[in-house]
Amino acid sequence: EPRSPCCCLAWTLLIAAINSLLFLLNLLLMFVIFTIVLLPTIVVVYFGFQCHSQVLHSSARYCKSVLDDNSSSALIILGFVIMSPLLVVAMAIYCSLARRLQLLVCFQPYSLALYKGGRWCCARGCHTPLRAWV
């Protein structure tokens, strides 16, 4: 049976808030995973750019004694080369974790706001089988 307009608006706002919260949780999880996995690339590229004379040319001791322009360029190139496989690893970790935690199943349809008697279906509370194909 359809809900009243005020009740429909309240349920719509509640469902939108829950979906937004789940979206932010997924975004935070993705940010943390990508930051941790891509940390070697970030560090290598940072030191490469920091010590190159054409970019920042830091006066740090390791820039003067260990890294010259050629080695700084090599670090920059190495950082960008190892970024591609690390992106694939980070995405695989995120997808595996999101599937294991069933985070993408928790998004609620807005049809719950329109009609009474709809069931909340999140992760283990839903009795329908989870399939990745249609």
Describe this structure in words.
Helix 1 (5-37) packs across helix 4 (69-101) and helix 2 (39-51) packs antiparallel against helix 4. The chain has 134 residues and is mostly helical. The protein has one domain (5-106). The model has no long low-confidence stretch (mean pLDDT 83). It is elongated. Helices cover 66% and strands 0% of the residues.
Q: Can you lay out the helices and strands and say which pair or pack?
A:
Blueprint: H1 5-37, H2 39-51, H3 61-65, H4 69-101, H5 111-114
Helix pairs in contact: 1-4, 2-4
Keywords: Membrane, Transmembrane, Transmembrane helix
InterPro entries: TMEM88
GO molecular function: PDZ domain binding
Q: Could you name the key traits of this structure?
A:
single chain; 134 residues; mainly alpha; 66% helix; TMEM88
Oligomeric state: single chain
Helix proportion: 55-70%
How large is the count of helical segments?
5
SSE order:
HHHHH
**Strand share of the residues?**
under 5%
Total count of strands: 0
Rg from Cα: 24 Å
Structural class: mainly alpha
Instruction: Report on the biggest sheet.
Output: none
N-C termini distance:
29 Å
Shape: elongated
Average of the residue pLDDT scores: 83
Summed up, the domain count is 1
Low-confidence stretches: none
GO cellular component, one term: plasma membrane
Family: Belongs to the TMEM88 family.
Subcellular location: Membrane
GO molecular function: PDZ domain binding
